[in-house]
Amino acid sequence: MLNNITDCEEGEGGPNSQGDGNPKESSPFINSSAASDAEKSQQYDGKNMALFEEEMDTSPMVSSLLSSLANYSNLPTGSKEHEEEEYNEEGARPSKKPVKAPQLGTLMGVYLPCIQNIFGVILFLRMTWMVGVGGVLGSFIIVFMCCSTTMLTAISMSAIATNGVVPAGGSYYMISRSLGPEFGGAVGICFYLGTTFAGAMYILGCIEILLIYIIPQAAIFQIEGLEGPEAEAALLNNMRVYGTIVLSFMSLVVFVGVKYVNKLALVFLACVILSILSVYAGVIKTAIDPPVFPVCLLGNRTLLSKGYDVCAKVIEIDNETVTTKLWMSFCDSESLNATCDEYFINNNVTEIQGIPGVMSGILAENLFGNYLEKGVILEKRGLVSDVDPDSPTISSNRYVLADISSFFTLLVGIYFPSVTGIMAGSNRSGDLRDAQKSIPIGTIAAITTTSTVYISSVVLFGACIEGVVLRDKFGEGVSGNLVIGTLAWPSPWVIVIGSFFSTCGAGLQSLTGAPRLLQAISRDGIIPFLRVFGHGKENGEPTWALLLTVSICEIGILIASLDSVAPILSMFFLMCYMFVNLACALQTLLRTPNWRPRFKFYHWALSFLGMSLCLSLMFICSWYYAIIAMGIATCIYKYIEFRGAEKEWGDGIRGISLSAARFALMRLEEGPPHTKNWRPQILVLLSVDAEQNVEQPRLLSLANQLKAGKGLTIVGTAVHGTFLDNHTEAQRADQSLRKLMETEKVKGFSQVVISSNLRDGTSHLIQLGGLGGLKHNTVMVSWPRNWKQPEFHQQFRNFIEVVRETTVASLALLVPKNISSYPSNGERFTEGHIDVWWIVHDGGMLMLLPFLLRQHKVWRKCKMRIFTVAQIDDNSIQMKKDLITFLYHLRIEAEVEVVEMLEGDISAYTYEKTLVMEQRSQILKQMHLTKNEKEREIQSITDSSRGSIRRKHPSKLRSQHSTEEGTSLAEKPEEESVAVSNSKQVQLIHSKNASTPTSPTSPTSPTSPTSPAGGAATWTDNKGADKGRNLLAGNQESGRDLFNMKPEWEHLNQTDVRRMHTAMRLNEVITKKSKEAKLVLLNMPGPPKNRNNQTNPMDNAVYKDYPVFTDIQVMIFLGFGCLLAFFRLYGFGGMVFNFLTATFAIQWAILVQGYFQFSHDGKIHLGVINLIYAEFACAVVLISFGAVLGKTSPLQLLVMALLEVPVFAATEWAMLKYIKINDAGGSILIHLFACYFGLGVTFVLYRPHLNEGHAKENTSYQSDILSVMGTLFLWVFWPSFNSALTLKGDDQHRAILHTFIGLSASTLTAFALSAMLNKNGKITMTDIQNVTLAGGVTVGATVDMMISPVTAYALGILGCTACMLGYKYLSPFLAQRFRIQDQCGIHNLHGLTGLISCAAGICAILAADEEVYGPSFYEIFTHRAPVEGDPKLQELQMLIPGLRPGLGRTAREQALFQVAAVFSTIGVSTLAGILTGFILKLPLLAPPSDDLCFDDKLFFDVPPDYDAPLRLKHKTITEDSAA
Fold first, then answer.
1. Helix%, strand%, coil% for the chain, nearest 5
2. What HEC string does 1213-1232 produce?
């Protein structure tokens, strides 16, 4: 159900809409304040709507709302509206008439105004010249581009205009309400400037027509007799004088009687239409009877019409040759033998027709452009002239010259103003009866009409008028006539008079519209300095805006050149059109809910095309004007952004911001930020009092001083209560936070949470603060004040929980102590130090904090000092050098000092301090607390922050006493500290040794005031939880005082005592060294991970070892089972007997191995690891089974397993306990033992008749596929087999990598050798089934050692090669010469490769040293570790907790033991195999006969067709023989 929905889209209502800036628009908005409460009560009185009567004051009934919505009128920003506003403010005046709704339709309101504004001065004064210079094709391209731009803009404008009720004000309102006040103001000013300069252009066109074509004699600065720059300057001065006069007159008309301007608009429009019709009539007449407009040429050069009376050099009068005026222009006398211009002498004078007519074919000559440089003589194409290139041109003032240099981009800039004016309809939107219908139809129809006229004009001008006439801008070659007028019918004066009145009318319209546009912008209030121009006369006329408009227009008049002013206004119009297209495209792409235009023929692609065309045309017209226009718009944009009034119009830019924010947040979710992009994103946790005022405002001062990180800042607080009851308090708290953030100049977000428990509220802020990837990574919370007082103890408990939660969330923690003493943002330190006590590496947070602080003016003058603590075994000199180098790489300037903190006896004070803490814990356990609170209380007793920043006041410092006197940094009220906690994920400084433990213990905060007697704190609830990290367990000094302990000291946890001791020593050292520091920063350890001494279920071995167990299970039952099923008729036996034997062997091995290795107190301890060991023993049996596959009964196999498992277990026990070898992958104990045990068995079970081969000893297509599946199972899971018993971590990682590399190498080599050694060059399946696995065996002995990947690859290749050659040559040799029938070739896959692996392992042992392996060398080669009592062992145990004493063997000794183990294993296994073979030959074990070997039917009920492939083969052979 929708309840209390009062917000509507723009133009359709809204409760507090600032709307379009019109102060007195009739508003259909919901919650309108027009009706009083009494009226509302009467309005709903008697209505049967009691269900909603309580909501009537905020949600009016639809029946009362529809009337105002339907009758909504939006009058233009003009005199009537402003007048109504003034009189509403001063009091109603009954004499004023009510404002009437507008009634203009599409034709009168949109179409004709657009026609009038589009057709203008350029069409009449520059169109013919553009066609002549640019050619018909070039001009067509220009016209098409410009018209396409306006058409696309009109489509976008139509979509915007039909999206809801159109606000009065035209394009400015469209853009501002679509793109926001910044873009709206910038583009509105540009549109205003464009309209103003358009007025200047029209006035200049008016003066040009007046002085050149109507009354040339009126020129104040005479042009006659002047040439070149002087004539040009005189013309421009005339334009300036007359332009200023006309501008003054027009502005006076606009000021006095704007209504007359509107009434004369139709007259001016009629003049425009009549002029255009006369041109078309003239074109038609040229096809019938071309007009006589002769043009005189000398050679191919066009002559000025005022320079000759007759187009001839001489004429015959009464049979006498008389020179003409033209002769006198080029000769020094009238005589025929006068000295004349050489070009005049060499060329003839010809007269051509200026308008040959539309049927003359002149179009082909005018098709292409003829761009001219300034001062170049106009020449006719196709005429040949005799000119001496070396002779200078004289008498150039007798020719028609190009007045400016012309080029394509100039023509674009000059022409584009002729297609502007498409906003005329939208500017009158307030006067339209149905703006949503009239604006699209009228505007697009007007553009279509004008575009048709322009394009046809280009073609018709090129087809009717001579090229030299077209290029004659001012008609100097056609008796000073307007060129387009020469084409008009019935008289050129139709065009001259029509264009004159047209330009006058357009100028008046510009001077009328521009001030109103400026007034609309000013009344919106988005540009503060323009507000004065929002006022006007009593009738609302924009007097001040008119004055500014006239002043700006005068600038264009002073430029005086129509060709120079046109590109300027082109820039501003193009920018306006560009943003109209952008607004439509954005609204379309953003798909905002209120974007529902009635005009459906739009698309975002068309808008983007229009925007691209506008931008391209801007730079085509004039790149420097484009940059200036964009610079002006940018300046206005930034001004509005920083100084303008804040408006919320539901604009598209805000929609873009939302979309961009969503996109950025989604990108942040892709992964953690790179180290270079990391910055503190701070969540500041504040507390508020009962009045919802902030209690620690200086926390925000510190947050502001850390703002150099430019990260996110969230200021949060929790309010006690429920959301329904305390929502008002939460709003007040939020206002307090925002006000304080504004005061402290903290840019960020405020967040208030209402919770029944303040502790839970703070937890919710930590968990839910931020959004997506933009979350806080640092929490700042103040140290709890008066925490020792019982009434404030809950605050301290809450604080401890914050510390724990930030640790769990991997967040950094900043804890300022005595925050009220911190400097405000207005204070300055002129000197002092910021001391950093770098005790443990925190990823770089501790180094980053002073850098950020020193960027702020408060701390800028402070210098940085870094202290680090050296232990007794550390080289303090080298540490200092390394630290200086480290800081140099970090680009941090700081003083460095290494403090040596030597070990000392634990003082009695420390024991007493610890005892007090323990007693406090016991007391709290007796308190009547809930279980949850009791847990929190116990954990919070001695919890402290992980680091601190202290600032001291030197004047207040007193001498520090020793720790025995009970004085600590934690108890001085005049100092302040900030605890710094950093998670391991914050790696600003990457170092592979960052986490290496180098200090004897993890120190506890010396600033944790947890004891009533003073001193430092420790954790009391974690009994031995950090024992693995406590590296002083064997330190005799720490236990030396135990003999002199008081009785109550004996029960203290020695870990807690040592922590307290470390805290006291650190407290003493820091107090001494940082006595004068302004600020002290420390990083401290976090709280214990184990809160209640409960073990983590995930630490159980099942989660570590069970995945490996399952992998080996797959190898045993699926891998070996499928692999052994490769015989055609022995598939059941291979798989099922493998199943049977494996199951029996595993159970038997659990008992036997348990007796040898896992028996304690007469019981066998069983776990997942025991199953893994048992499966290794099972693998030994199954490998041996491969040697006798198909030749033994199930009973024989069980007996073999029964005998082999104990021998293997005893051998394994002896090798590991006494010889002590390294055999991670089982190359010796598994592969060699199994291989030679199996060979011993098959040697005794030798069957001579099988030497020549057995009829059933072959494979089939299906059996080979099944066998390859077994190979794949073994291949995939072999890394688990090799890494199962290696050390967890790096060793296991290496084992997996080496095994995979070895297997990959053997696989590739197997495929290559199989094809090479096959006579047919084909791949043999036997090779794929076995040889591909050789690499897994070959790398077994070195699998956890630091061999290179190349070595592992080489071992794989070597093992594969040996295995391949063994199958091809060695197996037949052993069968024939040594009576060893190895059915599966286990000697090749396990024996040869096992020997290679053992040799590689021996080499790796000899090459291994501590420099390569580091301290982990003695974890891999445990027997080479120092013996018990060796001092080196103690040093290693400091680095590797839990390292056990070894045998002190050298590399050579260990290698010899490895060799001994190899030969011992081969000997024992071979002997045991032979003995087992003799037992298996006993008849009672039912061995199969030779005929029934490799056949399942002896032991299984087989299907009738199980041997069908074999029978079919025999049948085929028999039939072939018979044939």
1. 60, 5, 35
2. HHHHHHHCCCCCCCHHHHHH
Tell me what pLDDT residue 557 has. Answer: 92
Query: Which ranges of 289-407 would DSSP assign to H, the alpha helix?
Result: 325-330, 342-346
Question: With pLDDT > 70 as the criterion, what percentage of the chain qualifies?
Answer: 76
* DSSP result, 970-987: GG-TT-B-EEEE--TT--
pLDDT in tens, 886-937: 888 878 888 888 887 766 555 555 555 565 655 555 554 444 444 444 444 4
34 burial (CB, 10 Å; 0-12 / 13-18 / 19+) is exposed
Residue 322 three-state SS: strand
Mean pLDDT, the chain, integer: 77
Buried (b) or exposed (e) across 228-266, using 16+ Cβ within 10 A? Answer: eeebbebbbebbbbbbbebbeebbebbbeebeebeebbe
Q: Taking 60 as the threshold, does the pLDDT of residue 1498 lie above it?
A: yes
Distance of CA 335 to the CA centre of its chain: 88
Closest CA to 291 of 487, 494, 128: 487
The 3-class SS string of 828-878 reads CCCCCEEEEEECCCCCCHHHHHHHHHHCCCCCCCCEEEEEEEECCCCCHHH
The DSSP annotation for 677-727 comes to G----EEEEE-B-TTS-BS-THHHHHHHHTGGG---EEEEEEEES-HHHHH
Quick one: 639 exposed, middle or buried, by C-beta within 10 A (0-12, 13-18, 19+)? middle
pLDDT at 737 over 80: yes
Tokens of 479: 């008796």
Helix or strand (DSSP H, E) at 812 = strand 812-816
Is the pLDDT at 1040 greater than 70? The verdict is no
The pLDDT score that the predictor gives to residue 606 is 94
Per this entry, what is the length of the chain? 1523
Burial class (CB in 10 A: 0-12, 13-18, 19+), 960: middle
pLDDT at 670 over 90: no
Task: Spell out the residues 6+ positions from residue 1402 whose beta carbon is closer than 8 angstroms to its own.
Answer: 1341, 1455, 1458, 1459
Higher pLDDT, 811 or 985: 811
Report, as an integer, the average pLDDT of 403-409.
89
Identify which of 451, 617, 563, 455 has the alpha carbon closest to the alpha carbon of residue 126.
563
pLDDT at 131 over 90: yes
Mean pLDDT comparison of 102-111, 503-512, 544-553, highest-scoring range: 544-553
The closest alpha carbon to 283, from 488, 491, 482, 135, belongs to 488
Query: Burial code of 1181-1204, b = ≥16 C-beta within 10 A, e = fewer?
Result: bbbbbbbbbbbbbeebbbbbbbbb
Radius of gyration of the chain (CA): 50
Give me the amino acid identity at 1408. A
